Amino acid sequence: MNQLPAINAFGALAHDTRLSVFRLLVQRGPAGTPAMEIGRLLELKPSTVSGHLAVLKRAGLVTAQRNHREILYAPRFAAVNALVRFLLQDCCGGDAAACAGVDLSALQ
Question: What is the pTM assigned to this prediction?
Fold first, then answer.
């Protein structure tokens, strides 16, 4: 991941409601959650949920898959991992001893 996609991802998450939506999706896992269910669980209007999901999808943080009459949204864990790798790729200038306490296992 380079800087522009990272900025887009952080921008998408830099909103209280979108962060709540994304955290809910992560909590619910890769099977996906219908938009109406997201709205119900977070007490949001359908149009509000739709707008926030569109921003998260454009940033590459969620997927949308049609299942009959509903659309299931799920987190893109690969995108989240790429974002974490982007943040930590140069941790402590490569000095592993200086990075004590930082879990770098996701970078492997």
Answer: 0.85
